Amino acid sequence: MCGLTAIFSYGGAARPVDASELTRINAHMMARGPDGDGLWMAGDGLAGLAHRRLAIIDPGPGGAQPMCLDGDDGSPRLVITYNGEIYNFRQLRDELIAAGRDIRTHSDTEVLLHLYDRDGPEMVRRLRGMFAFAIYDASNRTIFLARDPFGIKPLYYADDGETIRVASQVKALRAGGAIADTPDAAGHAGFFLLGYVPEPHTMLKAVKSLPAGATMRIEAGSAPKIEQYFRIGDQLQRPEARLAPGEMAARLRDALGDSVRHHLVSDVPVGVFLSAGLDSATITALAAEVSGASLDTMTLRFDEMTGTPGDEAPLAEQIAGQYGTRHQTRRVSGAEFHDHIDKVLAAMDQPSVDGVNTYFVAKEASALGLKVALSGVGGDELFGGYESFRQIPAYVGALGWMPGLPALGAAFRVLSAPIMSRLTSPKYASLFEYSGGYGAAYLLRRGLYLPWELPQVMDAEMARDGVAELNLLERLENSAAGIGGPRDKVSALELGWYMRNQLLRDADWAGMAHSLEIRTPLVDATLFGRLGGIGASKGQMADTPARPLPGEVRNRRKTGFYVPIREWLSGEGGAAHAGERGLRGWARFLYAHAPAA
Questions:
Q1: Radius of gyration (Cα) for the chain, nearest Å?
Q2: Which domain-ending residue is among 182, 200, 230?
Q3: Crossing angle (nearest 10°) for helices 388-399 and 486-493
Q4: What pLDDT was estimated at residue 426?
Q5: DSSP code string of 441-499
Q6: What is the pTM of this model?
Q7: 548, 554, 555, 556: CA torsion to nearest 10
Q8: 51-55, 148-152, 306-310, 439-443: which range is least confident on average?
Q9: Which domain holds residue 444?
Q10: How far apart are CA 595 and CA 466, in angstroms?
Q11: DSSP category for residue 501
């Protein structure tokens, strides 16, 4: 886990890369890689790569970056800067060596260089892991950018038609000093609509996100070419034969165990974020089968939740005891939240209403000396654990058949919204307006605000322009289009929007704030290829460990992980926000205090 930086002057103006800008961008990401840094400049001055290193695989000097693969004349031909982990790199390394490649280190970085040298852009289809990287080919003045299938690792770029600038953080690109501050209306509107900034937008007009599962190739003098090599919907469109219970159990155990083993690949200790939920409990149980008593686990306990059903610490401690892990419970109070709020806002690369819990649990994991921790992110999306899997099909099934429903619903909303706003959530006024299709129903279920509410919380003109540019309803409908069953439609929406844009992004910034790599065994393209679309449940997932989960955990009703943000903001230091409703109040606080760059 690291921070990457690249600048490539590919246009006809041939402007030399400013090495000081490259250094400023790289220096801004020190927390992403405190173990080392490096910088490489092309001989012609038109390309430069830099890197911040968090040493996890081959932590010695052999894994330092930027890393070069020399040409026949001894000069650098291919140069890489890379952020992530390739879990199957040892198999790929053995394959490359057997084919005659001279691989001198035990790092996954060198494997990427040789694989690209052999296979070109198609190499991404061989990779199992989380990654974002830039490879510069000095022989033909080409840069190749790639991002992992689910977008676990970020890759942002600013392209003015002459020079492309690439980094792991939006704020880092701005720190270079060459990025305009002009806001992206779609990014700002998207934040209030969803509680996060949806790809490819950021809060800055000049900066975009390379889409998850995509590559970009730029040859000197030519326009950038983006290609999508992975689409979530492709895996959910496959016809799957109904599996017998025994066959389902065997497939689940084999696939989940395989993913957990791969995600434990590391040259440093690995821990697990453990709550009372089935996802993290199952990962802990499966990881303990591999690691035994050497496994570290940790849980957060909030003072405001102690002794209530929302306190997950007692059950987490029971899980840890059952599987013999070295367990720590970390208490977080409102006072500590206020002590750290400035650090949280500084670390948050783009505003997000989630992630505070991950920030504090990552802080504790780092304090324990860990560089790597496993998270249960992805279980609800893959195994249908959210209420949205029941609610959204119900909305569409009950109302979606009515012709002209959106227009009639809009009229109902105009008349009822003032009353609804006084009695309950104003979103209920749009129940008829947003039940005509899966995308619309998803926005109703997941939306923080609805489009008609935006002028109340942001500039009205920016809201209008942002909603038009974002085109959110059409994009949501397209995410579910062509996918057969209701469950798979909702899964595609949850995986491609909430998980990708919020949960995974939060895991990145919150972990990197403490130089901690967060790995997600349930977000894995190989696992998804084996399990996507077969309809396995959370209960069936939880039955996979050889030693069963405690009954209290296995039979516990899903409650979600509650962070008392509202209580903290309403307490000392947050009086100005008292009375704001939950996440909406937190969103308005973030928008006022934590601009993206």
A1: 24
A2: 230
A3: 120
A4: 65
A5: HHHHHH-SS-GGGGGGTS-HHHHHHHHHHH-HHHHHHHHHTT--SHHHHHHHHIIIIII
A6: 0.93
A7: 150
A8: 306-310
A9: 388-490
A10: 16
A11: I
